[in-house]
Write a structure and sequence with these properties.
The protein is mainly alpha-helical and 130 residues long. Helices cover 78% and strands 0% of the residues. It has one domain. The radius of gyration is 18 Å and the shape is globular. The termini are far apart. The mean pLDDT is 75.
Length: 130
């Protein structure tokens, strides 16, 4: 029973995170909101959320490779069916959208780079920190 409750809470929090990051992304369409995001320090939080959820992409790649191997063993050449955590992908989509809206001004570009470089896994995100 405890495992079921923990699993349910994890799903709820992932759905909530997807909803919240979606709202942030929508708010980021307003330059005034983006300025406010920088004032309250939201950009480092968005980068952390991005980093914390990037394992969904690893899961997707591992699943894709496993699926392709299995289908090839069964004689099929198609590898197009994928399964992944839609909430985590939703969070990633929303965070990337919000960060891209924030990156329309140079101070935010700098804030994004600084946040990424402070993360342990900066090279993974693809930004040079020199």
């Amino acid at each position: 029973m405890n495992r079921t409750i923990m699993f349910y809470n994890k799903i709820l929090s992932q759905e909530l995170m997807a909803a919240v990051t979606g709202a942030v992304w929508k708010c980021a369409f307003s330059p005034d909101n983006v300025d406010r995001f920088q004032e309250v320090g939201l950009i480092p939080i968005l980068v952390k959320i991005l980093k914390d959820n990037c394992d969904a992409l690893d899961d997707l790649q591992v699943h894709f490779e496993h699926l392709c191997t299995k289908r090839k063993q069964n004689g099929s050449s198609s590898c197009s069916l994928l399964q992944f955590n839609p909430q985590k992908i939703g969070v990633l989509t929303n965070v990337v959208g919000a960060i891209s809206e924030c990156a329309k001004t140079m101070p935010n570009v700098i804030a994004i780079k600084v946040s990424v470089c402070k993360a342990n896994d900066a090279g993974r995100v693809g930004i040079a920190c020199h």
